[in-house]
Amino acid sequence: MSKEGEISPENYANWFALYQLCKHIEHRQTINISSVEFGKLLNLSQQTASRRINDLIELKWIKRKIENKTQKIVLTKEGSDVMLLMYKNLKNILESIVILGTVQNGMKEGAYYVSIKGYFDQFQEKLGFLPYKGTLNLELNSTNINLLREKLNNLKPVVIAGFQDNNSERTYGDVYCYDCIISRIDNPEEKINAAILDIKRTHHKKNIIEILAEPYLRDYFNLKDGDKLIIELNINR
Amino acid sequence: MSKEGEISPENYANWFALYQLCKHIEHRQTINISSVEFGKLLNLSQQTASRRINDLIELKWIKRKIENKTQKIVLTKEGSDVMLLMYKNLKNILESIVILGTVQNGMKEGAYYVSIKGYFDQFQEKLGFLPYKGTLNLELNSTNINLLREKLNNLKPVVIAGFQDNNSERTYGDVYCYDCIISRIDNPEEKINAAILDIKRTHHKKNIIEILAEPYLRDYFNLKDGDKLIIELNINR
DNA sequence: ATTACTAAAACCCGAGTAG
DNA sequence: TCTACTCGGGTTTTAGTAA
Question: Which fold does the domain A99-233 belong to in CATH?
């Protein structure tokens, strides 16, 4: 076997077995499962499941106590480290994948919302810049939109507080933004601070997002429809 | 093959191959790698690596363009979904593993810090309760301390702002806390809001954490040294 | 250099069964 | 019932090699 906790071809079957075991973990890192049940979980026979458990014990990823012919399985520190390592690696991979958007025409609803005084006055303080009164529309492919959603889930939004307009009696709800950095794909070194307007509330096709920034981005980056921009999220938590 | 994106024994070798490929991803979800290099990455022969790539293409997890006998590999939406799914499952697993601590004697430095007026006055507002002027020490085993660290990494701390004491000319730094919920392991239904004092700054053995709560927890839970408590973190982001 | 076919070797799984 | 052994058969890997 290779380095401690490393997953290699000799043991990725075992890694997968550990992963399935962990899905059934209960209080105190304990799992109650027979080799027959474990076999069903893995889509494998009782015999192979039993062998897997012994492999995992040998790897020191789990411990077992047999009481009255039934086994209690406990995750060890090494075992939980293996799971943590994979989790961290996946997190890194997903975070390192650069998200790309394609410039689309139109300013859509974003421009309207940005201009409303009750919102606009909060931008300087909360985003760190006074945005251009319009948004840039970026289309993301389905790979990118999924990754973006997951990244946004793990990010704290900038909340632009809602308010009541006493003249029109209209109520304006909270607006959510996410800090980001934008650059041209053909010149990734020239970056600019920007913000993504919350994608949940827009009426768009679901794979279009709206970007806020201080300058008019089409001029700033000399953009035409179809140009590609890199969207980096600040993962500075 | 089973459900879309599901990893089963027929394809966890392929899943692992995809995972290794993703570690080498570059701009625009593209990977440049030969079958020889990929074989080395997987600790497998060039022939098997080549077959894996074809398997991944058949699974629609990647696409490939061959130019001048060299291949460019691009992750598909399905491929990134597979990675995202595993990431989310691991996240769930790690979050669902309950962290246990064992009651230890002593109040240590925590008690001193809690009592300092400059800090104490902030607790009501920031933690939602005025803590007992002492901390409960919990010892965590190495599995639990690792999991806790990872969970805290993904949590927003409650910052108790530092201040300057004009009498003693001493400067008191920021103190970090994390909201949590405590219960006896033998009665997990009776819960109480509490906070973990930042574990990084204490001079403790590294597997001891300090808990703040409104009541004197030893009385509240009728605790003696060695009793076990469940520590739940608020993952309500 | 590449990728990938074929065929033999190595490996793994599960049926039968023991404890 | 449980877990886990042996061993035959099927699957996967790799060496050799072609394109």
Answer: Elongation Factor Tu (Ef-tu); domain 3 (2.40.30)
